[in-house]
Design a protein that fits this description.
Elements: H1 5-23, E1 47-49, E2 52-53, E3 62-68, H2 73-85, E4 93-100, H3 105-115, E5 121-126, H4 129-132, H5 154-157, E6 164-168, E7 172-174, H6 178-182, E8 192-194, E9 196-197, H7 208-212, H8 214-217, E10 227-228, E11 232-236, H9 237-243, H10 245-258, H11 267-274, E12 279-280, E13 309-311, H12 318-323
Parallel strand pairs: 3-4, 3-6, 4-5, 8-12
Antiparallel strand pairs: 1-2, 6-11, 7-13, 8-11, 9-10
């Protein structure tokens, strides 16, 4: 006796749900393709980087670096879509993805290609052993992931022809044209630019041991250091390489291994090296802290002022809260960029 159509449909739906669960790998929808506006600069299609388009070495391209891993891939996909959707020249963006060398890089590459078949991107394996020995435990285990430190090694990982890059965390979305951020002037000698927050309690980012030791705390002498969030940075890679800033960050991590001078993962070494010497960017480019603090991840409101970038830094991530049916009000601003293909979305 044939099954009624509704029962057949429900059985098929159950099968698909179990198939997704068994696979253990999230599936993502294909994003729409976005095209340049007529006044975008033309980047020639000559091959000169591993047989790929010359966009990866073009000074006219906007170079964006984001890390990729299985834990945050859903956030990374949303970030990519938001960048493309709000860009006036999306075809002129070169994405430089950094993934752990121990990860399934082929799967990550295939995931990106499946949702963004037209995307200009490269994936660079990051040998985490180079930094793992330097990492000290922090107040939240997620901050101890070696890939969290990849931002310190971009100058070594990306081709020498890439002279400037916008680094972005995976837990954010843009609602403005990234070209505006990428064009931030760095002056004659600044290495990086980022929104900085001089009203924050800067002393709280370091331990009493640090502040009580003049040989350590005097590193900020003749500087006016302010907190900045390293999830959104414009970096001059040429100046970084010439100044050997990766090594300077590693030296502070080595100090931390001997004497605990901070508690917050990869941020404090950046502050030690750069705070007080960065180009400040308008706060609209990092409305951070939407993930709450590092302990409970409670809901937070936007900072006063205009918004170009929403950043769920902190413990709470929008995709996790949405899946748990406990979203914060601002998580609704992330949801439109979520490309996750659920078993129930059968109309796509």
């Amino acid at each position: 006796m044939p099954k009624p159509p509704l029962l057949h449909f429900l059985l098929l739906l159950v099968f698909i749900v179990f198939a997704f669960a068994a696979a253990g790998t999230p599936q993502f929808k294909e994003a729409p393709q976005f095209y340049n506006s007529p006044d975008c600069p033309l980047i020639t299609e000559e091959d000169d980087f591993n047989g790929e388009s010359s966009i990866f070495c073009s000074d006219q391209a906007i170079h964006v670096a984001i890390t990729l891993d299985s834990t945050y891939i859903r956030g990374s996909m949303a970030a990519i879509l938001s960048i493309l959707q709000h860009s006036s020249c999306p075809q002129n963006i070169a994405f430089h993805f950094v993934a752990s060398a121990t990860a399934n890089v082929s799967l990550l590459r295939a995931t990106i290609s499946s949702s963004f078949p037209y995307l200009n991107f490269q994936v660079y394996p990051f040998d985490v052993s180079s930094v793992s020995r330097l990492i000290s435990t922090s107040i939240r285990s997620a901050l101890d992931c070696p890939l969290n430190y990849a931002r310190s090694y971009l100058a070594n990982l990306l081709p020498l022809c890439v002279t400037r890059v916008v680094y972005l965390d995976s837990d954010l979305v843009l609602v403005d044209d990234i070209a505006k951020l990428a064009a931030t002037p760095l002056g004659d000698d600044s290495v990086l630019a980022a929104p900085q927050y001089c009203n924050a309690n800067f002393t709280s980012y370091f331990t009493a041991t640090f502040w009580s030791n003049p040989s350590l705390s005097l590193t900020f002498a003749n500087r006016k250091p302010c907190y900045f969030n390293t999830g959104v940075m414009v970096i001059d890679l040429d100046r970084w390489r010439k100044g050997d800033y990766t090594r300077k960050i590693e030296e502070w991590m080595e100090v931390q291994k001997r004497t605990r001078i901070y508690n917050l993962g990869s941020l404090p070494p950046f502050l030690l090296v750069f705070a007080g010497n960065i180009v400040p960017v308008d706060h609209r480019w990092n409305q951070h802290g939407l993930g709450g603090d590092n302990f409970r991840g409670l809901c937070r409101d936007l900072h006063p002022g205009p918004v170009s970038l929403l950043h769920w830094s902190g413990k709470g991530k929008p995709w996790a809260r949405l899946d748990a049916n406990r979203p914060c009000p601002l998580d609704a601003l992330w949801a439109p960029y979520d490309l996750l293909q659920t078993p129930f979305a059968l109309d796509s």
